[in-house]
Fold this sequence. Notes:
Elements: E1 3-7, E2 12-17, H1 31-36, E3 40-45, E4 49-55, E5 58-64, E6 79-80, H2 88-101, E7 109-117, E8 120-128, E9 134-135, H3 136-139, H4 146-161, E10 164-165, E11 174-176, E12 181-183, E13 190-191, H5 196-213, H6 219-236
Antiparallel strand pairs: 1-2, 2-7, 3-4, 4-5, 5-8, 6-8, 7-8, 9-11, 10-13, 11-12
Helix pairs in contact: 4-6
Amino acid sequence: MTENIIAVNNNCWILSDSEFNENIDSQWFDDKYWLNQGRLLGASSGRGSAWMVKSDYGKMMLRHYYRGGIPAKFIKDKYLWTGLNNTRSFSEYRLLEKMIELGLPVPHPIAAQVCKVGLFYQANILIKYLHHNSTFAALLNTDSPIESWEKVGSTIANFHNLGIYHADLNVNNILIADELVYLIDFDHSKQCPPRKMWQNANIKRLKRSIDKLTDNNHIDINEKKWHKLIQIYSKTINR
Length: 239
């Protein structure tokens, strides 16, 4: 993919695939724009929100960047400006491009937006919608096949083998399709040298999210499935 940066004005920039350069509009990053056209199809909640929109190019996911943790209580969606290339949306867009080149199952980025406000900035990203059957979270309290857990384990290992650190690896950011498992939401993620320390931390973060959402009726069976996931992960990881 060939990227292009469009200066909307002195304080806003859009990074996009060259395919969309002539048609992309700053309004694309406003959920009210899609709502007024009857093209806002739904929303999903995580740290912030992601909206599904129906564009002339197919379904897209629009996500606004929100802070998490304690800082969110004081500054909800603004980040300190340290340069355009250091912004959250531009960084995630470029990481997604890199992962697609590596053949990893991630959504295709469409465009990223940054708007500078004084010493801070706000950001949005548009990605192509991924057709999937379920999230990993939705499988936890069902009689999900062990094969789905095995695919999650091997998929994460493939990311780790290529040095992809997912900053928020949890069950809601794993999508289950017929043949593939996708990872999504790479805000604050990066590619770095493969190291056992951060890889293990990623795995522990995933386990915490599984334990948090598993109901009492599925604790034992999910523990057995988790051991299978780890077994497949361990066989796939390059160590």
